[in-house]
Amino acid sequence: GDYGKVASVKVNETPITNGRYFTDCDLDPGTKYYYAVxxxxxxxxxxxxxIGLLVSTNPKLKTGWPKTMEFDADFSSPFACELDAxxxxxxxxxxxxxxxxxxxHCDGTGYLSSDGVFARTGMRxxxxxxxxxxxxxxxxxxxxxxxRTNPETTKVFVYK
Length: 160
Description:
single chain; mainly beta; 2 domains; Ig-like_fold; Fibronectin type-III domain-containing protein; Integrin_alpha_N
């Protein structure tokens, strides 16, 4: 078929009868695709196609990524900073819910260990770590706040 000036190709010859969605697999990363749908009645009459929808796949992943952390990290945002001036590029720092801080070089290799573990605090966290040269010595420190769910045990950690 033809959608405006874009040629269309039917991607599934067999109608979808057991659900309300279609998953298109093995698409090229960072590519735009147009989709339009039709319906088929019980007499196998096909409708006109819907208005096309332009969608994009995710960009190609950088070599060495993604990384797996031991526990959920849904309360923390990763950030980039210069931890290792001798290594080309910035390091990526993140935190899991149980207080393990991770740091990786830009190519995905671990900053201090092969699995990326920077420090295990053993303190739960619902925040993101931060980095700054807080003592003005030219090197970044990682700042983190953790708690054992008791306000009396909430602590702020600074790692060199």
